[in-house]
Amino acid sequence: MKPVRKAVFPVGGMGTRFLPATKSMPKEMLPVVDKPLIQYAVEEARAAGIEEIIFVTGRGKAAIENHFDHSYELEDMLAKKNKTEILDQLINLLPNEGSISYTRQQEALGLGHAIYCAKNIVGNEPFAVLLADDLVNSSTPCLKQMIDLYNEKGGNVVAIEEVPREKTSSYGILDVAGRDGKVIEVKGLVEKPDPKDAPSNFSIIGRYILQPEVFSHLEKKVIGAGGEIQLTDAMAQMLGHIPFHGLLFDGERFDCGDKTGFILANIAFAMAREDMRDGIKDYLAKNKDRL
Length: 291
Ligand code: G1P
Prior knowledge:
CATH class: Alpha Beta
CATH superfamily: Spore Coat Polysaccharide Biosynthesis Protein SpsA, Chain A
Number of helices: 11
Structural class: alpha/beta
Bound molecules: 1-O-phosphono-alpha-D-glucopyranose
Order of helices and strands: EEEHEHHHEHHEEHEEEEHHEEHH
Distance between the termini: 52 Å
């Protein structure tokens, strides 16, 4: 079984839900406390042992490339002012030479199409996909939990959580063949089904481990839910041919593609910080009448 060494980050989306904030700034650069969403996702991948990072970008996303590069003026200024702690953080963020690649999705044809754009860079090996919108707070990185399961079972692995029935139309949903604790054996997948048609309430979050065969299905460019080329549909074509598991990961997931989820992530991450916790608690306590 080949190890998972590469991770794809689709970052081409327009971020219309966060306009006007995202008019001239990529949505992946929105900060949770003081770190952009994309940095959390990259740090999670690295902590899971990922060696190569592939960004599928689009027009207007240069800020992401700049974020993962030197900023000489800034580094010089921080060094002169002896601000070593933040300087070290910025330096640690930089990828090793040649371990980061960028390719562009030229048309917004859906998540499946974005992943297809990474085909040549991924090559013939398993790879991870991380959607920066989905921020996971956990003691063991979510992707690491998935790689541990992959090393046992092989095939495809998706991270999942249970959602209320009425929310199934926002997510990829599993049809369940069997369950062993936190591990679900998958027999079907549907993208954004109506609650009445949903085969379960196990929803896929933006974390995947995929076999490269997925590209041969994405290549067919079949149009699915919402008129887009869906990753879920390509994965569904692989069922029955390779092992396919959903993992009920340990941790808390925030849907930062949604404004409420994004604010909740900020509150949760700020509450976890000693320098901020008291300020937030005081504010909430003083304003409990407004709750
Ligand atoms: C995408 C996937 C969906 C998945 C979701 C997780 O949807 O298509 O299957 O459940 O990410 O966040 P999107 O959020 O891009 O609409």
